[in-house]
Amino acid sequence: MTRVRPIHNRVALLLAAMTVAAALALPFLAFAPNRLLSGKAVALSTVAGAGWSGAALLPVALLLAVPFLRPGRVVNALYVGGGVLAAAGLVWLAGQHAVLLAATASPAARTSFGAGFWVMEAAALLAVLDGVRRLGLGPAGRVAVGALVAALIGGQFAAGHLDQLSIMKEYANQRDVFAGAVLRHAALVAAALVPTLLIGVPLGIAAQRSAAVGRLVFPVLNVVQTIPSIALFGLLLAPLSALAAAFPGLGIGGVGPVPAVIALTLYSLLPIARNTAAGLAGVPEPVREAARGIGMTPRQIFWRVEAPLALPVFLAGLRITLVQAVGLAAVAALIGAGGLGAIMFQGLFANALDLVLLGAVPVILLAVTADAALKLASALALSRLGRTAA
Question: Per the database record, which ranges form the ABC transmembrane type-1 domain (predicted)?
Answer without folding.
Answer: 182-374
